Amino acid sequence: MTFQVKTLRAASALPGKDSPFAEAVKTGLSKTPKTLPSWLLFDDRGSELFKKITELDNYPPYVCEAEILNACKQDIADLFANDPLALLELGSGDGEKAKILIREFIAKKQDLHYMPIDITDAATRKLVASLEQSFASASLKVTGLVADFFEGLRAVDDDGQVRKLVLFLGATLGNRSFPEMEIFLKQLHDALNADDYVMIGFDLMKHPKLIYEAYNDPQGRFSDFNLYMLDRINEELQADFNKDQFVQQAQFNWNTRAVESQVISVCEQTVTIQALEQTFQFKAWETLQTERSYKYTEEEIDWLAERCGFHTERRWYDSNKGYVMQLWRAC
After folding, report:
1. What's the mean pLDDT in 150-174?
2. Which of 127, 228, 298, 315 meets the CB 3.0–4.6 Å disulfide criterion with 95?
3. Could you tell me if residue 241 is inside a domain?
């Protein structure tokens, strides 16, 4: 079988003065309050730092999804038995959770084409290499796509004959507000054929103290990850952020029901970004939001699925009932 990587990212998607990266930084730092999108964190180094977060014992998306997938892998494989399957993963990272399903599909001799889609080149190549090492003798085809989600989906050969199962794991959708989620899911629906499937994870609303503890780890991995945003801006846009003058903190906002991760300026300071030919003022204790992670009720999730053209076929929970993975069918 074949194991390959295709790079689809346009040159304009790469960092530089006129890139989306630069525009996002300029727009975000000009807002009140200052806010930057979390996708700015995910280059090769940022992905490595995030991987360390997933290794924390109490980080819900990774721990709960691994538990759920190990429990339901046979159900999933049985559902797609006997027909060729294209398994697409949005934001695949190291692909460890997808491998749980891949092993089960291979054990049942499924005709499987796995396509991890991720914006990080190094992570995608590492994943494809690890799959080739582990499954070279199996009936598995792998095509890694270095692209954003919809670039990757558009690049999939689609004659309508092979059913698709899209994995969207890690509660990644929860980084978007409810209106943003709706827009994204409608775009995802439009990229699929009727009777294609999406398997998606949601971190449910729970006791706020548990949420706080999960995002303020004593090891400082969330701090390292969020403060890396400043390093990346320094490197890509010739800025002079001093990380020693910022601290990271995550808090739960009851009004938005989101964990909001922020880096906070500990003093009044001016940051110069040469590539933008612009300076930005920070007051003492001014916040810069770097991430949001929304928590939802099941009623909200069901409403969202129906509104965006999906029917909920199955749902699975972790042992504490604080996390749910749902299987949606495109109608």
Report:
1. 87
2. 127
3. no
* 65 contacts 97 by C-beta, under 8 angstroms: yes
Question: Does any domain span residue 264?
Answer: no
- Residues sharing a CB contact under 8 Å with residue 228, sequence separation 6 or more, in sequence order: 41, 45, 46, 49
> Which tokens go with 11?
């040159």
Give the CATH number of the domain where residue 194 resides: 3.40.50.150
The residue assigned the tokens 């199962």 is 165
Provide the residue range defining the domain that includes 306: 56-207+296-330
4 inside domain: no
pLDDT digits (tens, 9 = 90+) for 62-99: 889 999 999 999 999 999 988 899 999 999 989 999 99
End-to-end CA distance of the chain: 32
- Helical axes 298-307 vs 178-190, angle rounded to 10°: 40
- What gap in Å lies between CA 281 and CA 160, rounded to an integer? 53
Q: Whole-angstrom Cα distance, residue 122 to residue 135?
A: 20
Indicate the range of 142-146, 158-162, 168-172, 286-290 predicted with least confidence: 158-162
Measured between alpha carbons, how far is 322 from 91 in angstroms, rounded to an integer?
Answer: 22
- Residue in this structure with the two tokens 């919809």, named with its chain if needed: 150
Residue with tokens 């003093």: 267
Q: Is residue 271 part of a domain?
A: no
Model confidence, pTM: 0.90
Task: Outline where the chain has alpha helix (H).
Answer: 20-29, 44-54, 60-79, 96-107, 121-135, 149-155, 178-190, 208-215, 221-237, 298-307
* Number of compact structural domains in the chain: 1
CB 97 within 8 A of CB 124: no
**Helix (H) / strand (E) containing 203:** strand 197-203
Q: Which long-range contacts (CB under 8 A, 24 or more apart) does 178-184 make?
A: 178/294, 178/300, 178/304, 181/304, 182/304, 182/307, 182/308
Identity of the residue numbered 254 = W
